[in-house]
Amino acid sequence: MTERLLAAPPGAAARAASSYTELARLVRESGLLNRRYAYYWGHLGAGALALAGLAVAAVLLGNSWFQLIIAGLVGCVLTQFGFLGHDAAHRQIFRSAAWNEWTARLVSGAVLGLSYGWWRGKHNSHHAAPNQIGRDPDIASGLMAFTADLAVERTGVAGWLTRRQGWMLFPLLTLEGLSLHIGAVRHMLSSRDPHRALEVTLVVLRLGGFFALLVLLLPLGKAAAFAGVQMGVFGFLLGGSFIPNHTGMPIVPRGARIDFLNRQVLMSRNIRGNVLVDAAMGGLNYQIEHHLFPSMPRPHLKLVRPLVREYCAVRDIRYTEVGFFASYAAVVDYLNHVGLGARDRFDCPMAALLRD
Questions:
Q1: pLDDT, tens digit (0-9, with 9 covering 90-100), for 243-277
Q2: Which of 83, 115, 247, 352 has the most beta carbons within 10 angstroms of its beta carbon?
Q3: Cα separation of 86 and 124, whole Å?
């Protein structure tokens, strides 16, 4: 029944494919898919200098609780490296696929202490089917429940937490960094990736070296506090840049078939930006454009936005864009309703078809 209701009318698939092909042609002709080497080399260099400067400041400061300020700043800089690793994984930085891949692998392992192989597989699945049940790992069962079906299954402590997950969103985001490290370790223990040995070496050296330096520099209590603050800030900022982009947008039924243009636009939310928002979110506030053109260099996403928005308006495709604070308010509201077991929360085109 679901397949019949969601089946496109004759010729609709071809028209949808043609619509994206036409948009892609316009974007290619605009030159916005061209590389931005100076931008990325500048950001990589600035990040490296910032980490080096913070390391020197930590050594000079010595045994002091003011080290927690440095810990927070380290978390901020590592978040920016997280965005750079993301861009490289999407082949935004270099023309060469190999250069992009190795940049992403080295940034992930040596700078962040994470597994590039694990993140790549998970993130590629998300891009292929955003917000689709059974296909998008970002809405699968985890610390938070993103669908009511998952929420109603939870009991005990998990159920108590889920019923309050919207209000607890921001404290929970501080655990995102730890979650990423745990996911990376699990992947490396079971992975058959040909680069597994290199990834393990990079992650062990990065994490081991970091904690060894802290223990040498600070008493154990301050060292633990430094690591906790750094990890918390990193998780809060990185997780906070991802969660408003799709949370609360339509959920796609498991077997639904949707054309690429509608799939990427309808399930994504843009956040109106300025210089601060763009920097804090690594350009991911232009989520619609990023999903339509994942290899487009980050600084070009805001430039292609007017073209994409107008293109969607002409074809009556809903283009969602809200302010920074409104986006998080929508996320909190959605998570609270899901946690309480609400259903049919949004006027979703797919859900509307199912109700007919």
A1: 999 999 999 999 899 999 999 999 999 999 899 99
A2: 115
A3: 11
Q: Is 60 exceeded by the pLDDT of residue 12?
A: no
Residue given tokens 């998080």 in the structure block: 328
**Strand positions, DSSP E, 256-326:** 270-271, 321-322
- Please check whether residue 143 is in contact with residue 162, taking contact to mean a CB–CB distance below 8 angstroms: no
Neighbours of 35 (CB within 10 A): 15
* Coarse DSSP helix, strand, coil percentages of the chain, rounded to the nearest 5 percent: 70, 0, 30
Partners of residue 252 on adjacent β-strands? 132
* pTM, full prediction: 0.89
Q: Are 287 and 245 in contact (CB under 8 A)?
A: yes
Q: How many helices (H) and strands (E) does the chain have?
A: 18, 2
Reduced to 3 states, what is the DSSP secondary structure of residue 341?
coil
Residue matched to tokens 């694990």 = 118
Residue 252, classed as helix, strand or coil, is strand
Closest CA to 212 of 203, 223, 221: 223
